[in-house]
Amino acid sequence: MNIFRLAGDMTHLLSILVLLLKIYATKSCSGISRKTQELYAIVFVARYLDLFTDFISVYNTFMKVVFIASSLAIVWCMRFHPMVRRSYDRELDTFRHYFLVGASFALALILHEKFTVQEIFWAFSIYLEAVAILPQLVLLQRSGNVDNLTGQYIFFLGAYRAFYILNWIYRYLTEPHFTRWIACVSGVVQTALYADFFYYYFISWKNNSKLKLPA
Amino acid sequence: DQQESVKDEL
């Protein structure tokens, strides 16, 4: 564990806390893509199948359980909580996310480290995570303005990805056999998807104005 | 040389 990896995990955790806070405090999920949240739930369940087969550390197990539980809880709230579900921007959240699931799974069948069920689901989760933010970014683009908590949620998610890239560079330089091409290439793609959002986030931060995305 | 296959990242 290096400092970049820890910072990445913490900003990831923080992003989820911000999202839970928004939903809990405002009883609203406006501006949040349910499709992106469903994709994250699929990502975590598919990736952490090793919870039952490999023990790495208490920290690792704890974080995995937190990510699975929180992503399922968010999806549950958006689908079934009587007040939260009413605020869902259904008509703006029209990205065909099943297409992303299919494409990611097809890619995992072709590109994986080993041809085993666990490894294919792991690769699938990496590919799906890389593109899971797309429905969310499309929803923001359509709605135009972004409330503070939603903006911070996406900012922390992007920061998590950026820290993971620093972590891989650090590991590549310090560990003799660190090569994880599937995760690293997908991670760079995933982070690149945030570039546009980050640009407008920093502009609004610098001008001390409300975050707005161009139509 | 054994390849590391343990997924230690989240």
From TrEMBL, chain A:
One Pfam assignment: ER_lumen_recept
InterPro entries the record matches: ER_ret_rcpt
Alphabetized UniProt keyword annotations: Endoplasmic reticulum, ER-Golgi transport, Membrane, Protein transport, Receptor, Signal, Transmembrane, Transmembrane helix, Transport
Spans traversing the lipid bilayer: 56-77, 98-115, 121-141, 153-173, 179-202
Record's bilayer topology term: Multi-pass membrane protein
Signal peptide: 1-25
Locations listed in the record: Endoplasmic reticulum membrane
Biological process (GO), any one: protein transport
Origin superkingdom: Eukaryota
GO cellular component: cis-Golgi network; endoplasmic reticulum; endoplasmic reticulum membrane
UniProt-listed PROSITE patterns: ER_LUMEN_RECEPTOR_1, ER_LUMEN_RECEPTOR_2
Gene Ontology molecular-function annotations: ER retention sequence binding
Homology family: Belongs to the ERD2 family.
PANTHER family per UniProt: ER LUMEN PROTEIN RETAINING RECEPTOR (PTHR10585)
UniProt name for this protein: ER lumen protein-retaining receptor
Species: Glycine max (Soybean)
Gene that produces this protein: LOC100306692
